[in-house]
Amino acid sequence: MNSKILEIENLTVSFDGFKALKQLNFSMDTGELRVVIGPNGAGKTTFLDVITGKVKPTEGRVLFKGRNLRSLSEHQIARFGVGRKFQTPRIYLNLSVRDNLAIAGSRAKSVFSTLWGRASTAERRRIGGLLETIGLATKADGLAGLLSHGEKQRLEIGMLVAQSPDLLLVDEPVAGLTDEETANIGDLLLALAESHSILVIEHDMEFVRQIARQVTVLHEGSVLCEGTIEEVQSDPRVIEVYLGQQSEMPAAAVKEEISAT
Ligand SMILES: Nc1ncnc2c1ncn2[C@@H]1O[C@H](COP(=O)(O)OP(=O)(O)OP(=O)(O)O)[C@@H](O)[C@H]1O
């Protein structure tokens, strides 16, 4: 098996001549939890869009499990094992939490046969396990529409896991959440990281500190630096791009500013 789940080489993406990504190089090991941060407009969303095939490289290539994704459609890439969770939950509000997971986990079947067919013991057990993992076992038979925003985020992460992707792409999972729900999502991602490869894009530095082992900082479409959260937070280039001209502040104060960003 390829030890790199994702390898991105000299990736450039141009929109009408504007380079949203420029000669970007990136790689991630199988089983790794990686967090990508960067100021607004750094190219984070475009980066995910290229991995899922929504946007095609202008130059360079994206290898997933060693295979170049260029000729594959978005749908084929999803089937090949790339799963994405968008910022806003996309769940079935009028179905129960359990049924949302059942539908997500049975891509090959129709919605009808999933809901009214008889689930196998293995399927029921798997959904039961997932409900525990996402902390929604006590709400399994309630309507998804009645969940709090944070619970909906956890459900959608569960739905992503139910599809058994090889790589989970998670886009800003804690935007708009309370501190408690943010910590819950962090714990969930850490638990999932025991057995999954996960790439998270996030702005919330408190959250990044909770979950990150290895952080990649994007700036103007390229990788500015990589390292542990402590390393990137004290890197003068990161301080500069986050705070621009304010970088004459004492280093300790700037670090606090980054933490608060
Ligand atoms: N379809 C497009 N056409 C033209 N320009 C685009 C397009 N998509 C993105 N861009 C530009 O590319 C740059 C990178 O955008 P992107 O959304 O990837 O950044 P981001 O890091 O996700 O930003 P944010 O944190 O604000 O979501 C921005 O300057 C954006 O305006």
Could you tell me the mean pLDDT?
Answer: 88
Low-pLDDT runs of 5+ residues are 245-254
Tally of individual domains: 2
Assembly type: single chain
What's the CATH H-level homologous superfamily of the largest domain?
Answer: P-loop containing nucleotide triphosphate hydrolases
Find the structural class using helix and strand composition.
alpha/beta
Q: For the record, what CATH class of the largest domain applies?
A: Alpha Beta
CATH architectural type of the largest domain: 3-Layer(aba) Sandwich
User: What portion of residues belong to β-strands?
Assistant: 15-25%
Shape: globular
CATH topology of the largest domain: Rossmann fold
Helix count, per DSSP? 11
What does this entry look like structurally?
This protein is α/β, with parallel strands linked by helices and 261 residues long. Helix content is 39%, strand content 24%. The protein folds into two domains: 1-81 and 167-232, 3-Layer(aba) Sandwich (Rossmann fold), CATH 3.40.50; 91-164, no CATH class. The radius of gyration is 19 Å and the shape is globular. The site of adenosine-5'-triphosphate has 11 residues, from strand 2 and helix 1. Adenosine-5'-triphosphate binds at residues 15, 18, 20, 38, 40-46.
